[in-house]
Amino acid sequence: MQLGMIGLGRMGGNMTTRLRDRGHDVQTYDPGVESTAKTLEELRDQLQEPRTFWMMVPAGAVTEDTFQTLLGLAARGDVIVDGGNSNFHDSQRRYADAKEHGIRFVDAGVSGGVWGLEEGYCLMVGGDADAVAQVEPVFKDLAPEDGYAHVGPAGAGHFVKMVHNGIEYGLMQAYAEGFEVMKSSEFELDLHEIAGIWRYGSVVRSWLLELLHAAFEVEGGQLEKIKGYVEDSGEGRWTIHEAMAEDVPVPVITAALFARFASRQDESFAAKVNAALRNQFGGHAVRAES
Predict the structure, then answer these.
(1) How far apart, in whole angstroms, are the C-alpha atoms of residue 121 and residue 114?
(2) Cα 171 to Cα 256: distance, rounded to the nearest angstrom
(3) At 287, is the pLDDT very low, low, confident or very high (cuts 50, 70, 90)?
C-alpha cells in the first residue's frame, strides 16, 4: 500500500526501509534528511486518496505542530497515524479533533527500537476499525508474526504502550540491581559470562538480557566507558500517574523511575540530610567534603 512517512530518525527511517523492502510505496518527509517531499504539502500531493500519513516524530510540540498542519492539508477519509510515544490523553483529543474534520486518527504504540528493521516492531494500535483496516497491511508488514494487535478505541494503543514502557523500567532496574550486587560481591565474577548463560534455560531470560550481554561484549564487563546517568522519556511517569488515579499500587515501576532520578545526581542533598541526622542523634561519623 501507499504511505506518507513523516520523520526519518532511528525509528522512522528503519520502518520506511522495512516497508519498502516488503513492496510498499512509501513517500517521505523530514526536513533534516533526504526525502521524497520538501514540504508536507508536497508529501500530500505524492499520495493518492484516501491517504495515510504516519507521524514518527518526537512526542509533544513536534507531534502537535505536525498534526495540526496535517489537519489543514488532509482530505475527508484520510488517516493520520501517530506512531510516537504520545500521551494517550493527547491521542484521544487528536482523534476527536480529526473526526470534526472528517479525518480518521489512529494511535500506534511501537516497540522494537533499532532492532526493528530486522526483527520487526511490536504494534499496539488504537482507533476505529475502518481506519485501522486501511493501515493494516502496513501494520502486518512492520510487525513480526503475532506481533500486532488492534487493542481498542482511540487512545488505547498509546495507553498500552505507556504501560509497556513502565514495565520495561521495572525489568531494567531489576537487572541493574542484580548485576550490581554481583559486581560488589567478594567473588570475581565474569558478568559477561553470567549474562550469557542466563540467556539459555533461565527463568529470567529475556531480550533485555540478550541486549545486556551484547552491551558487556561491546563496552567491557565493567561498562567502564558508560556514565551511570539514566534519562526517562515520560512513559514511566504517566504509568504511575494513571495507576494513582486508578488506586492501583505500582511500587516496582515507581522505584525504578526514582532510581533513574537518583542516577542524575552528582551527590544527593537528601543523603547529606540523612548523614547529618545520624550524626546528630547517634553521634555517627560523617564524611567531610574533599
Answers:
(1) 10
(2) 9
(3) confident
pLDDT per position as a tens digit, 232-278: 889 999 999 999 999 999 999 999 999 999 999 888 878 888 888 88
User: Residue 17: left (phi > 0), alpha (psi -120 to 50), or beta?
Assistant: alpha
pTM: 0.92
Here the cell at position 65 is 505542530
Amino acid at 35: S
Choice among 38, 161, 180, 193 that is catalytic: 161
Q: How far apart are CA 32 and CA 60, in angstroms?
A: 18
**φ/ψ of residue 52, rounded to 5:** -125, 120
| DSSP, residue by residue, the chain | -EEEEE--SHHHHHHHHHHHHTT-EEEEE-TTS--S-SSHHHHHHTSPSSPEEEE-S-TTHHHHHHHHHHHHH--TT-EEEE-S---HHHHHHHHHHHHHTT-EEEEEEEE-GGGHHHH--EEEEES-HHHHHHHHHHHHHHSPTT-EEEEESTTHHHHHHHHHHHHHHHHHHHHHHHHHHHHTSSS---HHHHHHHHTSS-TT--HHHHHHHHHHHHH-TT-TTS-------SHHHHHHHHHHHTT---HHHHHHHHHHHHHT-SS-HHHHHHHHHHHHHH----PPP-
Would you say 3 and 19 are in contact if contact means Cβ atoms under 8 Å apart? yes
**64, 136, 168, 210: which one is catalytic?**
168
Cα–Cα distance for residue pair 199/156, rounded to 1 Å: 32
- Per-residue pLDDT at 276: 85
Catalytic annotation on 168? yes
Q: How many residues can be counted in the chain?
A: 290
